[in-house]
Amino acid sequence: MPQTPHTFASNSIIEKIAHTVVHTKTVIATAVCLLYLGSPSMAIAQGVNAGTEIQNIATVTYEIAGEDQSPIESTPVGNSNPGVGNGSPTMFRVDRKIDLTVTGNNDANVVPGETQSEVTFTLTNEGNDTQEFTLTPEAAVVSDDFDPANCSYEVTAISGTPLPGVVIPTTGNILLGPDQQASIAVTCDIPVVSGGSLLSSGDTSLISLTAQAVKNSDDSMTTETSGVDTAENIETVFADDQGTDDANRDASHSARRTYLVSVSATPPTLSIEKSIVSFLDTNGGTTKTSGTEVTYKILVTSSGTGSINNVEITDPTPANMTYKPSSIILNSTNQSDANDVADNTDFGISIANTATIKLGNITAGSTQEIQLTYTIN
Amino acid sequence: MNRYIKIKKLAVGVIASLLLLSTQSFAAQQGHLKVTSKAQKMIVVNNNGQKAYKFVPATKILPGELVQYNTYFQNIGNQPANNINIVNPIPKHTVYLPNSAQGKNTNIVFSVDGGKHYGKAGTLKVRDKTGKIVPARPSDYTHIQWRYNGNLAPNVQQAVAFRVRLL
């Protein structure tokens, strides 16, 4: 006996029409009452994760001589054993797509001699597995005016929640899940001279960053699968595009950024002069005898525009004199003799028997005044 | 003594028939239809400037690629089968490709509510994010049902098919 009103088994035209009417009514009723809350399962942008099993089972119901029969489920090779649960899914496993994109973000305007100038990149894992990526900055890009030196990188941020074990910032390899992005800063030192001539305004240097997928989520190395494909195994497929400094489908991608030199029209200049401020003998007078303290002033002045980097002043102890401990004063502030990071000033540590004052980067137009005292032996 | 032997024989006979009975009830039952589901990957190829599909085994499949499922049903009994219905949920992590369900001599209906209700393509409704009732898109389909028209004679095999895109 038929259980369902949707009967199309008859060969009679009249019955077919009758059944069609029933069917149409059902459809109308269905169309009105069908309210499905929620949306179908949303997938992430880069697709289903590698290794996911995709299963399919079809179920067939039928009648023999007007009698309902037990449903029969499908199998990949064919099943005639009736009953729910006696079929088995036709299955394949989603394979591993290796895809990534490196994009360049910020260029940098630099002056000759500038250190640790930063350009930025973004790496996106566009594959469907968690990958470990290596990052390689390359300064020696041809077809530019100069090459920066001492390039290094740091992953400064990643989108979303870092995967377990990922600590940001890092200067090592970076682990990214599907769709995850890493922000990368590449820093290089800009030379003053290239090819025997001073850098000039408009000179450019290209800096390239290449990312490469090297390891999969199951810790296996990222290599493209060769040999016979199977539904069961996870094959690895390289699907990345060609970047500026890598090939198509090589599990790598790259982009370039530019260092643009701008030398100011009035280049900064530096001058230094040393003078004696005072004499103080052991009796409180100003005689120049043994034991008299001589205080010197070193004036560092700069002019023009721009900045002067890594300025370091050294003052060796004059002959027949002895440094008076803790006597260094920079811009009216007492400095310590220890080689600490607090004031970047020391005596006898950076260089033996010498006062070293690391002024660092100074802006053109400024003046720095150093005072220090030696005693006549 | 003779009597004992008789009883013993009887007991053996009873046990034997019980065994036979249980063997029959536990053996795989034979239905009248054999049902097979096959998956194939679809590759778009250029056939003299025309877009065509090539079918290869579903072994290497990446997100975004297309898969065709064929369901074969063969009458392996000796009587015609009728009122045949084939129901196939859209596999998880895939989305139904519009107008891809096909099957000779079938009426094809779809469900957007997990197989509770079925209707023809274009008649189904869903709620959108704001709760408004809107026409269902093919990507909303959860199940497909093929209603086979007519009898399937002994030994005859028919097939239905549909296509999905791996999410």
TrEMBL record, chain A:
InterPro entries: Adhesion_dom_sf, DUF11_rpt. It comes from the Bacteria. NCBIfam families: B_ant_repeat (TIGR01451). This is Putative repeat protein (TIGR01451 family). It comes from Cocleimonas flava.
TrEMBL record, chain B:
InterPro entries: DUF11_rpt. It comes from the Bacteria. Residues 1-27 form the signal peptide. The keyword Signal applies. Keywords: Signal. NCBIfam families: B_ant_repeat. This is Putative repeat protein (TIGR01451 family).
